[in-house]
Amino acid sequence: MDILRVRHLTYFRYADPVFFGEHRMMFRPRESFDQHVLGFSLAITPEPTDLRYIHDVFGNCIGIARFGAKARELSFESIVRLEHSPERSLDHPSSTDGGANAYPFAYDYADLPDVYSSMLRGYPDPDGVVDSWSKEFLQNLPKVDALHVLTAMTNAIHDGLRYVSRLAGKPQSPLETLRLGTGTCRDFAVLMMEACRALGLGCRFVSGYIYIPPGDTGSTTMLTQACVCPPPNIVVDPCFPAEWRMG
């Protein structure tokens, strides 16, 4: 069990005073059996005229801020203190469930309605380039478990593609990333999502923080959350393949 403190600062500066539209924030981490928020504070400058919280369809906590006056600067500073105890179990293909975590992956009928939308491909692949790339990680074995597939895929992205910073803009398509051989963390996450979906695994796009030792400045990162069969869900970061989180 670890006690973590995460300070997040987002800062905007403008040449002239401007009005601010509605801002939506996702600073508060999701809680689960392996992660508990012990304390949370949020400082916004200038102070909003209205601040409220809602939950989205995934159970994320969304802060909604509205402003009334013009200003030259806008900042958000959140500080979260949390208890984190990663769950490290993953069914092995030799388990008594008959290797449900092995390819070809098949979800329980009770889970399928909830997982189905995350299995749908989000980008066209007319020539099957992503399909072929994803099948490379099956290692020509008749049955290969999800953990080995995800490990091989994250290592291939980390070792075979080059990270290039891009501070704005939507993610590249998986075909672009494979063609260019470069991308940002969001591009790599989207590529991995589509590759997992090509193999029948449900995935979604999530965000998190890179741990940096005290004294250095950290940053956010975009990750892929794969729902293996059966759960737990596994969060993987192709930029840092050694970092795994289950839950």
Explain the overall architecture:
By secondary structure, this protein is of the alpha+beta class. It has five helices and twelve strands. The two termini are 14 Å apart.
What distinguishing features does this structure have?
alpha+beta; disordered C terminus; 3-stranded antiparallel β-sheet; 4-stranded antiparallel β-sheet; 247 residues
Q: Which structural class do the helices and strands define?
A: alpha+beta
Classify the oligomer. Answer: single chain
Helix content: 10-25%
Could you list the spans in which at least 5 consecutive residues all have pLDDT below 50? Answer: 243-247
**Strand order, biggest sheet?**
9-10-11-12
Strand content: 25-35%
Tell me the radius of gyration. 20 Å
Architecture blueprint of SSEs:
Blueprint: E1 2-18, E2 23-25, E3 35-45, E4 50-55, E5 61-66, E6 71-84, H1 112-115, H2 129-135, H3 146-160, E7 162-163, H4 174-180, E8 182-183, H5 185-198, E9 202-209, E10 220-227, E11 233-236, E12 244-246
Parallel strand pairs: 7-8
Antiparallel strand pairs: 1-6, 2-5, 3-6, 4-5, 9-10, 10-11, 11-12
Short description:
This protein is of the alpha+beta class.
